[in-house]
Amino acid sequence: MAANEQIGYRGAADATSAGSPYNESLFLIHQVLSEVSTAKLVQIKAVTNNGGVSPVGFVDVLPLVNQLDGERNAVPHGIVHNVPYFRLQGGTNAVILDPQVDDIGLCVFSDRDISAVKNTRAPANPGSFRRFDMADGLYIGGYLNGVPSQYVQFSPAGISVVSPTKVTLQAPLVEIDASTSFTVNSPQSGFSGTVIVQGLLSFLGGMSGSIASGVAAVITGAVQFIGTITSNGHAIDSTHQHTNSGGSGLGGPPQ
Question: Can you give the pTM of this predicted structure?
């Protein structure tokens, strides 16, 4: 062979593929196995859902491990479209955590064509005779991704719910059962409705506020104050002085 003559492209075959009957058989076996897709690391390129309350959606994914030809040249995969993704859900109860573009996860591939079931969400015959094909993938996320900024963390210290924006609880009834204590660390807390306190209420930093026009504050039952009480700058506790009924002299508060 001339020095400048190039070997023709062999596809998946290499220089040893036809070196012996064993190599030839092994090459054929590898070719058959290469048609069987089992599981691949993939990266998401598109998502149908955006975190809202909706049925489970689909993703477009790119397999990350390249193919190699017989000369060890890289052959990148194309994008696999319309892959159903996993959501933790039972009936109408779910954790909505839709995948996002650039997430890395695992794609597993069915042994049959699942296209008909994807369309009907009911038992159906396979849409074709293909087997172990990447067109029949199912996405399971959460591999090789970065540090989260919003999360639920389980650790020996307890459970933490962390959000950089807002945490919302919405239900007809929300109940917190704390056997030792319940603490709110916030510069400000607001209640839009009636507040009922069935136990001791302590004001360690004072109390301030305003009453809507024409509405008076009413306290029903006995009230006991220990300490100084001031109204409009005047003490009204045991040090407060009253004018006698005759208009002369000062006396203490009624006993």
Answer: 0.72
